[in-house]
Amino acid sequence: MKKNVLLTGGTGFIGRYLTAMLLEKGYSVSILSRTSKKNTDTISYYIWDVSQNSIEEAAVLNADYIIHLAGENIADKKWTDERKAEIIASREQSIQLIASVLKKHDKKVEAFVSASGIGIYGALNGKQICAENTPAANDFLGVTCQKWELATRAITELGIRTVQIRTGLVLGKNDGFLKKLLPIFKLRLGSALGSGEQFMPWIHIHDLCSIYLQAISNPKMQGPYNAAINDGTTNAVFSRTLARVLGYSIWLPNVPAFVLKIVMGEMAIIVLTGLRVSSDKIEKTGFEFKYKSLQLALKDCLTKFIVKHK
Q1: Which residues contact 117 (CB under 8 A, 6 or more apart)?
Q2: Rounded to a whole number, what is the distance in angstroms from the first to the last CA of the chain?
Q3: Domain 4-235+264-308 classified CATH 3.20.20.70?
Q4: pTM here?
Q5: pLDDT in tens, 51-99
Q6: C-alpha separations of 243 from 136, 156, 305 in Å
């Protein structure tokens, strides 16, 4: 009988790619969604509403593994106090809701794997390479990720193996981080942001989803793992490489930091700061990245566009 993986956030960018990989590997997939969806031959949908503390419990009870991706997009809207509260609550309360069902029915899944972010190390610039034992920061990004991961303790305390995947900038086809950059870069108007010296730890969507697959199948994996390439890519390097893959050289000056702050408010720290992270811990589990070259990763993500516009 196929093992069942329950996904939250399964209809999002990462969730869709991960669903396809799980099905390809022979798992059955269930997805928790806020709206009613028709089941297919391969995917079962269940409804939940975190704000109402409501969930179809069968989704949890039928699961062998749970992968938790749900949470308000941290870069979707300006960071008002209300928005900040929504971002944190969406991460904490969703985990608490799942934990309550597991506890109520004394249900033991084989693993609970939660998304997290390299933002736990804070919005800072510098050459320090952050490992999983690097202290968490006290700024908004750091606190958000800390609370996100602390919420998973409710799962761990039930005797369930729990893993946190601290994700960098995710590169994928027609979605994710690149989706926001491509419109202006396709017009050959791309340029670096601020100083351009801020680091940009990135990961290809294929590698990220492969890490999630390993996290459920490897019983030795537990706790946090960085999911990003440690190649020292800066914003300037990333911008030049993206332009090169699209067939041109950047000719515009960097976008001034003050302009980004005016447009984005406090959220500008996401693009104006950056750090390096170590991938040693995940690689010591035997995991091998398929995409370690930024240029090759971008070429893969942009293949259809490049071919179409040659």
Answers
A1: 74, 141, 144, 145, 148, 166, 167
A2: 48
A3: no
A4: 0.93
A5: 899 999 999 999 999 999 998 888 888 889 999 999 999 999 999 999 9
A6: 34, 45, 13
